[in-house]
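Work Package 3 (structural annotation) set out to generate three-dimensional models for the target panel prioritized at the project kickoff. During this period the team completed the workflow that converts sequence records into discrete structure tokens, so that structures can be stored uniformly alongside our sequence database. As a representative example, we reproduce one entry of 167 residues exactly as it appears in the project archive.
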Amino acid sequence: MTLMEILTIPDQRLKQLSEPVADFDQALLDFVSALEQTRQQGPAAVGIAAPQVGHFQRIAIVDCSNTRKPVPNHGNLVLINPEITHWEGYDMGREGCLSVPDYTGNVIRATHIKLKAQDPSGETLEYEMEGYEARAVQHEIDHLDGTLFIDRVVSRRTDLFKRKNYR
């Protein structure tokens, strides 16, 4: 399967709001498979959202199970129409993004979240997440709403950093 092209800043399509998924069919399964293959080719990518490849539906994939330092996680998650139903706590942490390949930045996120989403078959699932996995899910949901992490950095002057090596 051909890898999909990742949209990068300043592409204005990254600011577009994504529509809910209504059809849980073979086309969705095929897209999710291609999206996962694209994520796996990204350098250290723990997540990817459909808008990053120009597909404006509420689909995200998050997998924190292969990080250098083990973190609590639910494995490889395909999140269709995800919605955060509860959040608490705040913490600042460094984030990077396939769509912002030249920078990382400090972003404040909730430390604990409750999430409701559907899987590719349409079944509704609920999760409680903390720490790095909660941060990654919030980052990907932001993509679905047309928001990038650079829109959330506390200060572009002090909290946005040029990457030394990414590719």
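The longest strand covers residues 76-88.
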